[in-house]
Write a structure and sequence with these properties.
The complex is a heterodimer. By secondary structure, chain A is of the alpha+beta class. Chain A folds into two domains: about 1-30 and about 140-270, no CATH class; about 40-130, Alpha-Beta Plaits. Helices cover about 70% and strands about 10% of the residues of chain A. Chain A has helices at about 1-35, 50-60, 75-85, 115-120, 135-175, 175-185, 190-230, 240-270, and strands spanning about 40-45, 65-70, 100-105, 125-130. A four-stranded antiparallel β-sheet of chain A has the order 2-3-1-4. In chain A, helix 1 packs across helix 7 (about 190-230), helix 1 (about 1-35) crosses helix 8 (about 240-270) and helix 7 packs antiparallel against helix 8 (about 240-270). Chain A is elongated, with a radius of gyration of 29 Å. By secondary structure, chain B is an alpha/beta fold. Chain B has a single domain, classed as Rossmann fold (3-Layer(aba) Sandwich), CATH 3.40.50.300. Chain B is about 30% helix and about 25% strand. Chain B has helices spanning about 40-50, 75-80, 95-105, 110-125, 140-155, 170-185, 200-205; strands at about 1-10, 15-25, 30-35, 55-60, 65, 80-85, 160-165, 190-195, 205-210, 215-220. In chain B, helix 3 (about 95-105) runs parallel beside helix 5 (about 140-155), helix 4 crosses helix 5 (about 140-155) and helix 5 (about 140-155) runs parallel beside helix 6. The two termini of chain B are about 30 Å apart. The chains are: A alpha+beta, B alpha/beta. The interface between A and B is medium-sized, with 13 and 18 residues.
């Protein structure tokens, strides 16, 4: 029966683990996408360089901003030439350098883009502000949805895991109902009866967690590649820091589910 | 020691197990609880150990109103009572010594220097001084019941409730077990024994409380299993001697 409990816990945790891997990888990708969002403030040709420097400094101190880089008029032209490649000679038709200098602002979180853009528009040295409003809005909507869906699915899986563990331990406990009955009759307190079962549940959960951790540790990268191959529409990325955290989480979840499952199961026999 | 005042117990489905039962069992008494199967004997004993709660009326054990105990008080209340069952209820994976020690351990006494002398003297009392290392399934039914009695006594309860303790035993063994209970009673423990064993009840001539259909139909001191007598007031003496076969 203990083997059954451990196996059930392991299978449940494995499902949970797999899903967490997908969610976490997705999160890495989403975060990377979010930080790619730039707000570009085009600087007036007439702007005072000191004013530009002031703006750049104050942006550097802004908590939402990851980095600020200054692109001079010449840099902008060089970039344009590079972008045009073969067709760069077209620029020869243009007199002087029509491109403005700009401050490229990389944000920590995409959702701070609209407010920052508004702020920058009111700066004296700024001609115009550009950020990909559509892209930002869509990305925010997608990431928000994926995170919510992920949380709901993880919680759902956890609830199912707990339900199955409770029922498995209840079967095991049924075999020991006489022991519980005798304990109660000779004057054992509820906690005296409960503790051994909770510890046992935690131990079995730990074993289940151990089995899961071993499988996940071995299969993390191959599995991720496989999933990425199957679900091509999902952008997945490998986060080396995630694995140790996942392993700790699975250990913890195993013990928590085992202990909590036993607590819930034994309650029925205590009330009987 | 045990007082029931107008106690009724109705199980779900309107099954009336006890109806308006009032009785008093004083300290140091040895009383038999007799009656056919389904008469309400087990319900009676369950009410005393708070395994069931009376639907109506009040149950007092050792001056505590059992029905008013809070959940957290029940374990401490039960520590003053010893219970013996027809099916012994020994834990099969524990040795005799561990089974007998179990209630003390449950009560938090973990020092074997304290536990062992008590086990030794109890095993002597129940006549099994050399069986401590054995497991229950290595013992006969009678021996298992002796172990169960030792377990019920290890925490020096004020009351011993025995629910059909001889039900699974042959007549000779049953008689030995009852002799043991008598001995325990002589040391001051109040004993209530639910039984179907006519011979034993008739031979011992102790107090007999007869339940039928949830009512006490007879309560006789020095009574017999059967009686042609009419229904009596609870707690009253038998008005005339009962006619019973003494084997």
């Amino acid at each position: 029966m203990s083997t059954f409990s451990v196996t059930t816990t392991a299978v449940m945790l494995l499902m949970l683990g797999c899903f967490l891997v997908v969610i976490a990888s997705l999160n890495v990708t989403l975060r990377a996408l979010e930080t790619k969002i730039d707000v570009v403030a085009y600087i007036k040709d007439t702007a005072d360089p000191a004013g530009v420097q002031n703006l750049r400094d104050s942006l550097g101190k802004n908590a939402d901003v990851a980095s600020v880089s200054y692109v001079s008029k010449d840099d902008a032209l060089a970039r344009m030439k590079q972008t045009l490649g073969d067709k760069a000679q077209l620029l020869a038709q243009v007199k002087g350098n029509p491109l403005p200098a700009s401050l490229e602002i990389r944000l920590k979180f995409a959702n701070s883009a609209p407010a920052l853009a508004d702020e920058l528009k009111h700066e004296a040295v700024v001609e115009d502000v550009d950020y990909k409003r559509d892209v930002v809005d869509r990305l925010l909507a997608i990431t928000g949805f994926l995170r919510l869906a992920g949380t709901v699915i993880v919680l759902g899986l956890a609830a199912i895991a707990l339900f199955i563990i409770v029922n498995t331990t209840r079967i095991a406990m049924y075999a020991r109902r006489q022991e519980i009955e005798i304990m109660k009759l000779v004057g054992a307190t509820d906690w005296f009866v409960r503790w051994p079962f909770i510890f046992e549940g935690m131990f079995l959960g730990l074993l289940g967690g151990l089995a899961t951790v071993a499988l996940v540790a071995l299969g993390y990268q191959p599995m991720l590649q496989r999933i990425a191959g199957l679900l091509t529409f999902l952008p997945l990325a490998f986060d080396p820091q995630f694995l140790p955290r996942l392993l700790l989480l699975l250990f913890g979840a195993g013990m928590l589910f085992g202990g909590l499952g036993s607590y819930i199961s034994v309650r029925r026999f205590l009330d009987a | 020691m045990i007082v029931l005042q107008g106690v009724s117990k109705v199980y779900p489905g309107n099954i009336k197990a006890l109806e308006d039962v009032s009785i008093e069992i004083p300290e140091r008494e040895f009383a038999f609880l007799v009656g056919p199967s389904g008469a309400g004997k087990s319900t009676f004993t369950k009410l005393l150990i708070r395994d069931e709660i009376a639907t109506n009326g009040r149950v007092f054990v050792n001056n505590q109103e059992v029905g008013r105990l809070k959940r957290g008080q029940i374990p401490y209340f039960r520590r003053k009572i010893g219970v013996v069952f027809q099916d012994f209820k020994l834990l099969p994976y524990k040795t005799v010594r561990e089974n007998v020690a179990f209630p003390l351990q449950v009560h938090g006494v973990l020092d074997w220097k304290v536990i062992q002398p008590r086990i030794d003297s109890l095993m002597e009392l129940v006549g099994l001084p050399d069986c401590q290392a054995r497991f229950p399934d290595q013992l006969s039914g009678g021996e298992q019941q002796r172990v169960a009695i030792a377990r019920a006594l290890i925490h020096s309860p004020l009351i011993l409730i025995a629910d059909e303790p001889t039900g699974n035993l042959d007549p000779n063994t049953a008689w030995e077990i009852v002799q043991l209970l008598i001995k325990i009673n002589s040391y001051g423990t109040t004993i209530l024994m639910a039984t179907h064993n006519r011979e034993i009840v008739d031979m011992l001539r102790r107090r007999v409380i007869h339940i039928e259909h949830g009512h006490i139909v007879r309560d006789e001191h020095e009574g017999a299993y059967d009686s042609g007598s009419e229904k009596l007031e609870t707690g009253s003496e038998a008005p005339r001697p009962t006619v019973a076969a003494v084997t």
